[in-house]
Amino acid sequence: MGCQTNNPAVRRFTLRFVVAMLLYALFSPLATWGLFRWHLPAVIVWLPALLPALPIIGAVFVTGRYMAEEKDEFQRAVLVQSLLGGIGAILAVITVWGFLENYAHFRHLDILMIWPLYLVFVGISYGLVKARYR
Amino acid sequence: MKNRLRVLRAERNWSQADLAVRLEVSRQSVNAIETGKFDPSLPLAFKLAHLFETSIESIFTDEN
């Protein structure tokens, strides 16, 4: 995926993903600032609270779009395997951590850490999958 | 799956990149197929067969 900069599907994916992450970087502090400043009533407080989640959902959608637009079946297979590796790793980590929290008094893992950890695991998985096909 | 892609390419003096352009895939895809690490779909196998003017069975052989 990364080596194919002249691939239009990759270019579109990269642009859309970067835009989604920039929106996340903008909405996250904006929501925090707004919630503290405006003291919104409980009925509508979920609106700004959900704002940073939208770009993350968008990033998942962007990944799905890329898979639909990518014509190269090998590149698609590499991405699918990388995503499966990332999903498997994050599920394993949060499951293990959950039991450690319950029974071994480990520190609480903030659920907001799941997305960045998932991205890290997908990145590692992508590197491993690419190395296998080299 | 074993294949004769390297030989067929060499006969035409094509690089992996040349074949990739003709197949409209990445060079990495050609390399993965050629080294037997990735099995192409039936449509891509047909495309290869048409390109080399031969049959799928004469390019790919089942190892079992």
Summarize the structure in words:
The complex is a heterodimer of chains A (134) and B (64). With 134 residues, chain A is mainly alpha-helical. Chain A contains five helices and no strands. The model of chain A has no long low-confidence stretch (mean pLDDT 90). Chain B is mainly alpha-helical and 64 residues long. Chain B has a single domain (2-58), classed as 434 Repressor (Amino-terminal Domain) (Orthogonal Bundle), CATH 1.10.260.40. Chain B starts with a strand and ends with a strand. The model of chain B has no long low-confidence stretch (mean pLDDT 94). Chain A binds chain B through residues 3-4, 7, 71-75, 77, 132-133, and chain B through 24-26, 28-29, 31-33, 37-38, 40-41, 44.
Explain the layout of strands and helices.
The complex is a heterodimer of chains A (134) and B (64).
Chain A: H1 8-38, H2 46-50, H3 53-69, H4 73-104, H5 114-132
Chain B: E1 2-3, H1 5-12, H2 16-23, H3 27-34, H4 42-51, H5 56-59, E2 60-61
Antiparallel strand pairs in B: 1-2
Helix pairs in contact in B: 2-3
